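User: Before I run my own analysis I want an independent prediction to cross-check against. Here's the chain; please return only the structure tokens and, at the end, one sentence I can use as a sanity check.
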Amino acid sequence: MLSRTVIKEVLDISIPAVAEATVYTLMAMLDTMIIGNYGGNKAVSAIGISNEILNTCVAIFITVGVSIGITSFVSRSIGARDIRDAEEYASLGFVIGLFVSIIICYSLFSFSEIILQIAGARGSVLSLSNRYTRITIIAIFFNMQINIINSILRGYGNTYTPFLVSLIVAAFKISLDLILIFGIIGAKMGVEGSAVASVISQAIGFTFLMFYLIYKSEVKIRLRYVLKLSSKKVKDLIFLVIPSSMEDAAFNLSRLLGTFIIMRAGTVSFAANQIANTVESISFMPGMGFGTAVTTLVGIKIGEKNYREAKEYSCACALGAVAMMSVFSVVFLIIPNFLVDLFVDENEKKVVYLASLCLFIGAFEQPAIALSSVFAGALKGSGDAKSPFIISLVTSWIIRVPLIFYFIRILKLSITYVWWVTVIQWTVDAILMFIFFEKRLNNLNRLRK
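Assistant: Structure tokens:
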């Protein structure tokens, strides 16, 4: 039985994290909706393939890479009541994240057209996507810094400030989208207007967070730790960051490869898959939010060497995530057509039909995604990023990619088969994450004794 204290702490940290993720997802959905109504499936395809590539890079190297490393070490230091170590890990993580961000943005800008061509973009879609990508890369740089600062704040349990920043970013983004895309003030900018809106909104969010980090944060960045540069702590961070990044790379690169395969199936199939993914992405928010919270909570309890409560907090987060994501399962089963209709013109009947079927199938994977997200976060909070990487590698590259290639490229079947494949993938993933987490806590208990 979960105690009231555990439930309260879990909700205090999880709900703002869920809300933050939800705000960003709604922002992306509204952005896609606005673009879809402005330019149809070609515009959706152009920004869709660009965002897939850019978001994959951010997720691999920053969101699930450097950021997870920072949160894990800061939370464990806070649990051990060592603020000095927490600030040292935060300072070193910030510098590593900044360095990585510069390299990623420079590489993406230099090779954007080549990358998009490899992805399968051609003709007008390629031209439009390349222009959009080159502007959006600036926004991506600010977004990566926002993620890094947020990871420091989450390390000591502050999930309210990142949520507040998400509201600021989303408000500016959607307002500027409408103004710039449709030319409410000035000339119409179309897809490029969406990219400019992203740059301005992310820059505003970053500026706000920097001021908060300098003047208000309980864990601050200290120049002396950067100049001192503890090789041991840098190694600690890198040894957690690399497998964590590789885990997300294993998943997101397989997802990206699947996107490339679908892209070659035609713009109708691609647009349908993209819209269904966009609608479904709102359901991931509880899993992401509770997964973020459990990394902090488990990290703190591991720092305290309280392994029983680490498991209790993990189970509470898993229960909350499954409960919330199951609600989305019901919605996807009942009204998939209504949700898809919001994103495309009524004349795009084939896109609406396919996207609705995909969303219906997606209802069956929601509980498994919830469990996978939470126990992967719990493993990382305990300092184990290798196990999630191994699991993700197996489920992504032995289940997901081969089956998608077989059904779509060889048999040339409907895009709906991709979604049945992901149902299988997430189910296996969730089971393995839970088993490995149980094993991790048992090992830590043995070492303590």
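Sanity check: DSSP finds 16 helices and no strands in the chain.
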